[in-house]
């Protein structure tokens, strides 16, 4: 694997995905970010086995490949560099990073050990403005229970019904609901999205444009 991209682009991408990289001692790979370079570009991914985040960064791929390194370590190092082009090359199972007159080597783990982030194959897909979804969440998420031991109320219910997308939340004392009309009729589907998942999405959500949402029985993709 070998690719070149700017310090700013990769640092920005790592700040998007690196927030959920865990501190697991039983599964050290969960501390890592998967870096995948191929013909379609450079992709970064992290997961804590509950949430998976992927993003694409711009750069020039000279040799396809994939590898994982600790997300916090590589981001901290990149933040020390000035804005410049940086080369990343996998040599003998180590990631060599060179640019801005410096060079470092990061040890990591094979990409084959990284957990697979599942893709929803048979879910119901819809698109709506980012502002609309943010507005629905602002009207409902405040009522989510903080008790993670009760997952049925520690999240927001997404309910697709006919031409409506309905969001609802409760902590057993308060109940909030908000809905929006969709452009097409959808099959009925319900899923409870954990509060932390929604918090992570709001952290990286775009200010403008449309959001693609896919809902299945037990998963959601935003």
TrEMBL record:
InterPro entries reported in the protein's UniProt record: DNA_clamp_sf, DNA_polIII_beta, DNA_polIII_beta_cen, DNA_polIII_beta_N
Keywords: Cytoplasm, DNA replication, DNA-binding, DNA-directed DNA polymerase, Nucleotidyltransferase, Transferase
GO-annotated biological processes: DNA strand elongation involved in DNA replication
Subcellular location: Cytoplasm
Start and end residues of each DNA polymerase III beta sliding clamp central domain: 128-221
A GO-annotated cellular component: DNA polymerase III complex
Residue stretches making up the DNA polymerase III beta sliding clamp N-terminal domain: 1-118
GO molecular function, one term: 3'-5' exonuclease activity
SUPFAM superfamilies named in the record: DNA clamp
Membership in a protein family: Belongs to the beta sliding clamp family.
Protein name: DNA polymerase III subunit beta
Species the sequence originates in: Candidatus Kerfeldbacteria bacterium CG08_land_8_20_14_0_20_43_14
Top-level taxonomy: Bacteria, Candidatus Kerfeldiibacteriota
